[in-house]
Amino acid sequence: MSPPEQPRKFFIDRSLGRVAVPKLLREAGWDLITLAEHYGVPQDETIEDTRWIEDSAKLGWAVLMKDKRIRYRQAEIAAVIEHQARCFVITRGDLTSAAYAERFIINQQAVFAASNTPGPFIYAVHADRLERLYPPHH
Q1: Hey, which of 22, 88, 113, 114 has its CA 20 to 30 A from 133?
Q2: In this structure, are strands 10-12 and 32-34 parallel, antiparallel, or unpaired?
Q3: For residue 61, which of 14, 115, 103 has the smallest C-alpha distance?
Q4: Where is the VapC45 PIN like domain positioned along the sequence (predicted)?
Q5: Is the pLDDT score of 6 beyond 60?
Q6: What's the pLDDT tens digit per position in 74-85?
Q7: Helices 20-27 & 97-106 angle (0-180, nearest 10)
Q8: How confident is the model over 79-127, as pLDDT tens digits?
Q9: 133-138: long-range contacts at Cβ-Cβ below 8 A with a sequence spacing of 24 or more?
């Protein structure tokens, strides 16, 4: 039996920071690139969310981000749909960097498995599970 497929590369939005969360995830074996690494500093501060959603989707990268209100942001959701993006979002804004990284790592198997399925989708990453925010279950 072959080992589980190494998941695609992940793109980390600026909302999760440039240093601590990416470092912790890389130490846990995640293949990722941060918004700052991809676009450069200081351009990273001015990139529109719809732009990086499009760019990362075209490159086949799944997205890790933090956004309490993602399900209400029509432009971002439209970009996710249009570009078949795969998104994993933590909907809490009050955790430490270590706690954000830990949420992704605890859910690593589920995130990796979902990231290898076709988009578009947005999953909320909770302490112990993923919850599909988009498209909603019927």
Answers
A1: 22
A2: parallel
A3: 115
A4: 9-91
A5: no
A6: 999 999 999 999
A7: 30
A8: 999 999 999 999 999 999 999 999 999 999 999 999 999 999 999 999 9
A9: 133/70, 133/71, 133/89, 134/71, 134/77, 134/80
